[in-house]
Every structure is written in C-alpha cells, then in structure tokens.
Amino acid sequence: MPFPNASDPHPSFLLASLPGPEGAQASLAALLCGAYALAVAGNGAVLLAVRLEPGLHTPMYLLLCMLAALDLALATSAVPRALAFYWLGAREIGFGACLLQMFLIHALSAAESAVLLAMAVDRYVAVCHPLRHAAVLTNTHTARLGLAALARGALFFLPLPLLLLPLPFCGSRALSHSFCLHQDVMNLACANTAPSVVYGLAAVLLVMGLDAVLICLSYLLILGAVLRLRARRERLKVFGTCVAHVCAVLAFYVPLIGLSLVHRFGRDLAPLVHVTMGNVYILVPAVLNPIIYGVRTKQIRRRILSLIRVGDRSSQ
Questions:
Q1: By C-alpha distance, which of 160, 179, 159, 146 is closest to 70?
Q2: What are the phi and psi torsion angles at 13 (to 5°)?
Q3: Is residue 8 part of a domain?
Q4: If you ran DSSP here, which 8-state letter would residue 173 be given?
Q5: How many domains, in total, are found in the chain?
Q6: How does pLDDT run across 139-183, given as a tens digit for each residue?
Q7: Domain range spanning residue 266?
Q8: Rounded Cα distance, 246 and 116, in Å
Q9: Cα 92–29–84 angle (5° rounding)?
C-alpha cells in the first residue's frame, strides 16, 4: 500500500498488523503484553536475586545478569512501541525512530550473542581447566567482556542505519513486522541496496555466525573432556552444569535462524508468519531464560521464592 507522502525520501513507515478482525489484533496485543510482563518480571527477579545473594557474585552469574539485562533491553526496544500500535492505533513510526529501533535491536542481539559465547567459554574453562578457572575469569575480566560485547555490537551494526539514511523510499511503506529490522526496511528502498545487503550479511556472519561456531567448538571440547571421565555420575554432573546454557543458546539462535529463513525464503508466506516470527525472535529468549536458570539454579530459585514470601507477608 503506497503511503500518502510518496515523494518524501524519509517518510514514516507502517508497522505490520495482523489481517482479520479487530479481535485478532486485541488477542495479539494481549499475548504480547503478557509475554513482555513475564520477561520483565522474570529477568528482574534474576537480577535482584543475584544482587541480594552474596554467593552468586561470581563471573558465571555476572554473565547471567548481563544476559538478563540485554533480554530486557531488547524486548523493551520493540514491544512497547508495538503495543502502542495495537492499543492506540499508532501504526506509523517515523524514519529516525525506525532506524534507531533497528540499530538497538541488532546491536543488542549482537551483544547477547557475545555474552552467550562468554558463558560457553566460562563453561569450557570450568570443565577442561578447573584449576585455572578462578584466575582466567575474574569479576573484573567478566565486566570488561560485557563492555566489549556492547562495543562490538554497536560498532558492527551502526553502519546499517547509516547505509539506509541516504536511500529514497518512494513505494510501499508497509513493514513485515511490528518493529523495524534492517532487511525489512532495506527491501522498501527504491534504490540500489547492494552495499546494505553485503554489509548486513557480513556483519551477521562475522558476529552471530562466528559466535555460534565458537560456541559449538567450546562444547565439542567440553564433550571430549566429559567422555574421558570414567564415572557416569561425574559425566552427568558436568553435563548438568551446561544444560541451562545450552537451552539459552537454543532459545536465542533458533528464533534468529527462523527469522532469517523467513526473510530469505518466505516472501510468499502469510503476513501472520512474519509478524509471529518477529515477535518470537524478540520475546522467546527474554521469557525462557529466567525460567531456564530459575529452574536449574538452586540459589536463584531459593532467593526468588524468599522474595515472593516476603512480598506476600508485606501485602497481608
């Protein structure tokens, strides 16, 4: 659908909506709101539990706090704006706001990928070189890794909006998702987008792709070390320390790969598929990670339950 100001090279874009009656829109808004509330409550509880539990002030749980903070930031960069659309009818998003949202989503995703890689390295050192673990991964080193992850994400993905900035947009302004992503916005430009295509693909491969390869390599080394253990109980114990992280990796990379495949091969798919996959990519890690680590980590679970009991007593 062409936008009224088609001559404007930097107009507003139209966020994607579900086809069908208003009831479908209201249902999606309710699901988004519920998932976002779960993400905020769950990740906030993890951050508070680690903050209040002195025994959790270690590199592994500092990385977990970074993961929770990034999940919160990533969800907050997209979901409130989508809810404003579904609840208030604010479908248009300005060109500058769209580019800023696009940058935040991609940069924060890159930072989350780096944190997952750091957590894999933490597990590798803890399993394969346990005597060196305390010296290699200190709280100071971990904090620097977090800053480096944010810096890398910003540096690699800042060129994406800058490459789109000079392009004219003279046709349809309707996006495929309820938020702005690089490939989605780029496809609406009526000019040569080859530089954006090449750089976007290179950035994803050099950041998320390389991180995924290194995570797999870390677990291959861990698997080799575990298989050399003779006692079956020891093997299960070591595997148990890695289960939560493996689940977090899958919760991040499976929606990422699914969304990439939809963009690459799914142009003829129903709009519902595009909208759903976009929301899954944004919200699934933020919702699942607190559940994964809350179930697998006794100290976090105990602290969260104690906070809930305190809250119940104070409300009575």
A1: 146
A2: -105, 165
A3: no
A4: -
A5: 1
A6: 999 999 999 999 999 999 999 999 999 888 887 788 988 899 999
A7: 20-315
A8: 9
A9: 35
The pair of structure tokens assigned to 10 is 């930097």
Domain assignment present for residue 294? The answer is yes
Report the alpha-carbon distance of residue 185 to residue 168 in Å, rounded: 11
**Which positions ≥6 away from 277 have C-beta within 8 Å?**
255, 258, 259, 262
pLDDT tens digits along 10-24: 678 998 876 665 666
Tokens of 131: 């005597």
Question: Cα 45 from chain centroid?
Answer: 18
Block residue for tokens 């809250």:
311
Q: Return the residue matching tokens 């970074």.
A: 66
User: CATH number, domain at 86?
Assistant: 1.20.1070.10
Closest by CA to 244, choosing from 35, 71, 50, 64, is 64
13 within some domain: no
Domain assignment present for residue 276? The answer is yes
Q: What is the pLDDT, as a whole number, of residue 310?
A: 59
